[in-house]
Amino acid sequence: MVPLSAYIAVGAVLFITGMLGVLIRRNFIIVLMSVEIMLNAANINLVAFSYYLESMAGQLVALFIIAIAAGEAAIGLAIIIVVFRGKISTNVDEMNLLKW
Amino acid sequence: MVVVFFSYFAFASIAAAVLTVALRHPVHCGLALLALLVHVSGLFILLNAEFIWAMQVIAYAGAILVLYLFVLMLMNLKTDDRYFHSSYLYFLVPAVIGSLYVLALLVRSPFGGAKGDATTAAVLQDGDTHAVGIKMFSDYLLQFEIIGVFLLGAVIGAIVLAKTPKPIADKRGE
Fold this sequence. Notes:
heterodimer; A: mainly alpha; Helix Hairpins; elongated; B: mainly alpha; 8 helices; 76% helix
């Protein structure tokens, strides 16, 4: 029997990895992929608690998170295409049009 | 047996996540992300969540990842030498130390709480999809509708953003 804390630990490690990716990678698409890693870590936590606390709510929220990840990917990639069309770069350090 | 499967899926997903963050070429990162998603879906199977597993494989690995790879191939990215933040060691070292501390806390701590009504036997009687469907269309109907409207807005927004803009001269000519 796998304890609940093992699943939580996997989720924590995945979340830290994704957060590191957001902080240190400079390619915008990789940053979005790291956000997907963090969303997956949250999903693992939700489904694990749903199983161990015998409640259905966690799985439903995990489904909603998958839907939100789909929307986030669509909007983020559209923004990347717009930026790429104008500046030919996906480096997040060079995207400073909104900086005052 | 479950422990063997759990350790395989856990270590494989962590390794795939590290590869996603650390690999140099963006397409390789996308493929590592695919490995991560598939292994996380294996964890869902171990937790009796077949419907979430199916959604993970269909929506994440099938749709979102194809979208990522499509944009990557479309833009023909060059891999530049400086692909990490210039001072990434300042992020890396505290994050590793902090995560080790959090891990030590997590593995030792007991988790408990009020149990719900979806016991394993009750879920396995009609299947996980049945249980999710009954719950979603009774208690979570409003959230379901909100997610539907959100996705519609996201689709419209993506189309509007990615549309090729008309040249200004064309507009004046009319």
